[in-house]
Amino acid sequence: MHVPDGFIDAPTSAVTGVVAAAAVAVSLRGARRELDERTAPLAGLVAAFIFAVQMLNFPVAAGTSGHLLGGALAAILVGPFTGALCISVVLLMQGILFADGGLTALGVNITNMAIVGVGVAYVVFRGLVKVLPKTRRSITAASFVASVVSVPAAALAFTLLFWIGGTTDVSIGKVATAMVGVHLLIGIGEAAITALTIGAVIAVRPDLVYGARDLRQPLKLRIGGELVDAPAAGAGQPVAARTSRRTLWIGGLVTSLVLAGFVSFYASASPDGLEKVAQDKGFAQSAEKHANADSLLADYGVKDIDNARLSGGLAGVIGVGATVVAGTGIFWAVRRRRTDGAADVSPASTSV
Amino acid sequence: MGAGHAHRLYRHGHSPVHGLPPHTKLAATFAFVVVVVSTPREAMWAFGLYAVLLALVAYVARVPAGFLLKRLLIEVPFVAFAVLMPFVAEGERVEVLGMSLSVSGLWGAWNVLAKGTLGVAASVLLASTTELRELLLGLQRLKLPPLLVQIASFMIRYGDVITDEMRRMRIARESRGFEASGVRHWGVLAKSAGALFIRSYERGERVHLAMVSRGYAGSMPVIDEVTASRAQWSYALALPFAALVVCLLGWSL
């Protein structure tokens, strides 16, 4: 999936370059939080590992073989920030040293594989681990599903970029079908290998798997035939994480506002893939108008504002605002319920 | 780094291109590729001129044509993609040799082939005339975050070590009669990958301890500071500026 030069036009490459640079900056900070001062040697060695494991061939059948892309593997083994950072460094070095992936397409490649690939894999993985019982088997299962989803997601991100700034007008439906279809197959292979590899590491050194930290049992001492919690050592970490989470949150909000309000000026005005397919196939007329079609934000533009760009940008900003409010509300509600639940449970567990 | 650590793409030499400071070469390569990508695809002659410019650089750098052409093979998967384009793209169609091809698809295929090939050739020229250590210093001079450059340098330095470790594991597997021939053997290979990760991570911890015991405090000392004179900059930037002239001609004609 290394995109060469000339595949995506210059403006889109520039925008993805800015996005990629911002993402690398964020993951540098995040990696420093995950690894503190050991960042340089450890992230470097993990990047070397990713680079090497991409050369490990897995035979499929009849002489064909595949290899790992490593996004999901990196996210689960060393955490999302370090993982994204390592994949970005690997892509940078492959571009400069081995001419694998164009220099101007570096932003596109990092956006697809490091941001979307690693990000989607980690979000899916965390979600599943939260739901599933806390066993090693469910970590393996979650990493399987995470990689199955992440590879087609990266392919879809490429299709999106190709639609925005592609240099050939191939119908977007065809590109999407071909890319997602092929990468679904690749994703299944990737998922099997990732899950097996995670399983192998967990069997030997579960403490090294970032995604399996929840499996750690608290140290217990047997005093007079009764199990007692050992006093915890070193509890200073969460405070540091909280302050930087706020900066991350503000940074994310500002970025999405900028993207929605400003960059969407430059987004293509042509109908999106589904709409295009619908027009081509003639089922657009038969589709009923959406119930909200008359609402203020219908078709991503504010109704009474004539300037198309201004209206689109404003709609984007309002959309981001509404999403943030809704998301924060849900998050807040969930967290409050969980802390209430935890408060109920904790006295009982200490008494047992 | 000594001679044994030079990467496979590097060709040792003493040409004027080899002698340029690395950050000027990086900047020139990047600017050249940007100019190539923003050239209109209808100006076919412009891409011919770009190729001539690169051939001139290769001649000055004394990189043989065979070496350069062999390195271009990395592009083959995308050539296959480009060949498919005329068949699947939309728009008006023309008959060529009895096949119905899309005009915009033909333009698209040409666009990707020309720009992609020029991009790869420029990167190959950069990599074959610049040593690894120099490349990393150049990236640092171009104001990449120092931590990122450190990570990249560790990846490059230990890349060969880790790859060799993987090769030794393969030899150990094969000398025990293991032969991977299908999906059934993925478990074994994945266990090797897992072991490789543990070894890499533990090596990283050891390297960190070794660095700390030698006084590492978050940044690497820069011993060989590279600077570029105005003459060297102008020499390196001659390539992108020549390309820019061609590009502007391509837009105006």
From TrEMBL, chain A:
Statement: the UniProt record of this protein carries the keyword Transmembrane: yes
A cellular component annotation (GO) from this entry: plasma membrane
InterPro entries: CbiM/NikMN, PDGLE_dom
Gene Ontology biological-process annotations: transition metal ion transport
One Pfam family recorded for the sequence: PDGLE
Cell compartment(s), UniProt: Cell membrane
Superkingdom, taxonomy of origin: Bacteria
Transmembrane domains' residue ranges: 7-28, 40-60, 72-98, 110-129, 141-164, 184-204, 248-267, 313-334
Membrane topology: Multi-pass membrane protein
Main location: membrane
Every PDGLE domain range: 246-336
Keyword annotations from UniProtKB, A to Z: Cell membrane, Membrane, Transmembrane, Transmembrane helix, Transport
UniProt cross-references to PANTHER family, sorted A to Z: METAL TRANSPORT PROTEIN HI_1621-RELATED
Protein name: Cobalt ABC transporter permease
Organism: Streptomyces regalis
Automatic annotation (TrEMBL), chain B:
InterPro entries cross-referenced by the UniProt entry: ABC/ECF_trnsptr_transmembrane (IPR003339), ECF_CbiQ (IPR012809), ECF_transporter_component (IPR051611)
Coiled coil: none
GO biological process assignments: cobalt ion transport
Keyword annotations of the record: Cell membrane, Membrane, Transmembrane, Transmembrane helix
Membrane topology, record value: Multi-pass membrane protein
Top-level taxon of the source organism: Bacteria
Record field: transmembrane: 43-60, 72-89, 109-127, 233-251
Subcellular location: Cell membrane
Gene Ontology terms: cellular component: ATP-binding cassette (ABC) transporter complex
Entry-linked PANTHER family: SLL0384 PROTEIN
NCBIfam families: ECF_T_CbiQ
Protein name in UniProt: Cobalt ABC transporter permease
Organism: Streptomyces regalis
